[in-house]
Specification:
By secondary structure, this protein is mostly beta strands. Helix content is 4%, strand content 48%. Bound molecules: beta-D-mannopyranose (BMA). The site of beta-D-mannopyranose has 10 residues, from β6.
Length: 315
């Protein structure tokens, strides 16, 4: 039995795995949990981040507006399924990730200075007031994902260096910092290996600490004659030196299959950005963008996922 090293979360959103379902990750039957109609100024609401907050949940949501600008708004929920989104934009940018470190909720996202995309960093304690730090990467990177605690005495940020456009390549790296401002001591983590992720990969939700190592869900991109297809994979990284990949599934864990993943503004996309975990039961609830249009929810357990990674291990 694998274990999540973390806090219990009794109110984690959950549905049992359907009988006979053969795969390690299964979808919420009420998907999508957020649609493009949930905010009046939205063109689409997708790739979004959530964390436990007070007696429920808070989140930062990617809203592409009706002028097709990329923006982030906050939202709150009692059950992690029905969300009330605010209409005040907190930052321009996209693909947020959230994690709590020592009582502060840290947001990392793709910020958009004039020269391209980089990783914005900000924190809040109440989801009302935000303190923004210097951008964490120059010149250009996406998929900036913080580890949820210092490792040794350093903060660690997964990044995916890129170009200014729809980058046709991409590997995952780690950069380290004593203070969330000065970053360096880069390490290579991993690059595409299998066909489903052949074009590029990028970290997804905040890594989950387990007794096997850091469980990292990530997205991988396949280029077909019809464009990109985004699917979700998983790897286990060393707990002390997380640039060391201990295990990695050669097969994806979730790929576009349902209508809201196959059809939308960008077809054939599942893009995970957040995971809630319950250390007591090992349950994991994953939030992901569907077809760059809606937010979906999927479930697994640490046991199911670790077993699948081990069965399909390519390390
Ligand atoms: C990536 C990011 C994601 C998006 C994906 C598919 O480059 O921009 O936000 O979901 O492309 O369009």
């Amino acid at each position: 039995m694998s274990k999540i090293l973390g806090s219990p979360l009794k109110n984690i959103p959950w549905q049992d795995k359907p009988a006979g379902y053969p795969y390690p990750v299964w979808r919420y039957t009420g998907n999508p949990v957020i649609t493009r109609d949930d905010l009046y100024f939205a063109n689409s609401i997708f790739n979004s981040a959530v964390v436990p907050f007070q007696d429920g949940f808070a989140g930062v949501f990617r809203v592409d507006t009706r002028t097709r600008d990329h923006t982030l708004v906050t939202g709150f929920s009692k059950d992690g399924i029905k969300w009330a989104l605010n209409d005040k934009v907190i930052f321009p940018g996209y693909d947020p990730r959230l994690c709590e470190i020592d009582g502060k909720y840290w947001l990392s996202w793709v910020n958009l200075p004039p020269h391209g995309s980089t990783i914005g960093i900000a924190y809040t304690t109440d989801f009302e007031t935000w303190t923004q730090l210097e951008d964490a990467c120059y010149p250009v990177a996406r998929n900036g994902v913080l580890f949820p605690r210092k490792i040794g005495d350093e903060y660690m940020l997964l990044i995916r260096p890129c170009d200014r456009g729809h980058t046709p390549w991409g590997d995952i790296f780690i950069q380290r910092s004593p203070d969330m401002t000065y970053w360096g001591k880069y390490r290579f983590v991993m690059q595409p290996e299998k066909n489903w992720e052949r074009t590029k990969i990028g970290a997804g939700p905040t890594p989950i600490e387990t007794d096997e190592g850091w469980l990292m869900f990530y997205h991988g991109v396949l280029t077909s004659c019809n464009g990109f297809t985004y699917a979700m994979g998983a790897a286990i990284l060393d707990r002390d030196e997380p640039w060391k990949v201990l295990h990695r599934s050669g097969a994806f864990l979730l790929a576009p299959h349902e209508q809201y993943e196959l059809v939308g503004d960008v077809p054939n996309v599942v893009f995970p950005c957040a995971a809630l975990t319950d250390a007591e039961t090992g349950r994991i609830a994953i939030y992901y963008g569907g077809a760059d249009t809606v937010v979906g929810l999927a479930f697994t357990t640490v046991d199911e996922t670790v077993k699948y990674i081990m069965e399909n291990d390519i390390v």
